[in-house]
Amino acid sequence: MAIRLNRREKRLIYLISGLIFFFLFIETGVFPFIDNHKRLSRTLQVKSQTLQEMKILKAQYDALNNQAGVSKARLARREKSFTLFAFLDKLVGEAGIKNKITYMKPSSSAIKNSPYKISIVEMKLQAVTLVELTNYLYRIETSENFVSVKRISISKLGQQDTSVNAVLQVETMEI
Fold first, then answer.
1. Dihedrals φ, ψ of 160, to 5°?
2. 3-state secondary structure of 94
3. CA distances (Å), 163 to each of 47, 94, 128, 170, in order?
């Protein structure tokens, strides 16, 4: 049994069929393409940000690597017989405050996965003037021996006295 359709009904069926094929084409061809394009654009944006971060990290790494090279060169120029305790004792003599040392306690600790160790000397200076202390600290910090003051504690002796007590923790790296 064949169904006979008039011309208007046939056109309506063709139009509806065309619309269905058009929507199927859009759903299966155009929308996935647009979604894929958006996804690729977002991925490209994220990758560009990641690349910028990597460039920043590389610049920081290069700066740290350069600084490490400078530090290694400074350590290599230092005398082979260098000890922090002897160095600080020599500087105390140069600063003229050797008689104001209450104690000097040396210690050292190894750095994990490294051939280096950190050498620390804690020392207490009693009844030093601020000028003497400043002179001594300047000698420590400006030396070419890769030595720095890690911690300092200063306490005033009295209301009228211009002298202070100071506890210093000085450190350096050693091979």
1. -90, -25
2. helix
3. 61, 19, 5, 21
Sheet containing 117-129: order of strands? 101-110, 117-129, 163-174, 147-156
Please state, in angstroms and as integers, the Cα–Cα distance from residue 74 to each residue in 46, 53, 56, 117, 140, following that order.
42, 31, 27, 15, 15
Q: What is the pLDDT along the chain (175 residues), one digit of tens a residue?
A: 667 878 888 888 889 999 999 888 888 888 888 888 889 899 999 999 999 999 999 999 999 999 888 877 777 777 888 888 999 999 999 888 889 999 999 998 888 887 778 899 999 999 888 889 999 999 999 888 888 899 999 998 777 778 899 999 999 888 7
Chain length of the chain: 175
Identify the residue whose tokens are 């199927």: 24
Residue that has been written with the tokens 């094929």 in this structure:
21
Which residue's entry shows tokens 């490294």?
114
CA atoms within 13 A on the CB side of 12: 5
* Nearest-angstrom CA–CA distance, 22 and 154: 84
Q: Hey, what are 41's tokens?
A: 């654009």
- 14's enclosing H/E stretch is helix 7-25
Q: For residue 97, what are its two tokens?
A: 């405050």
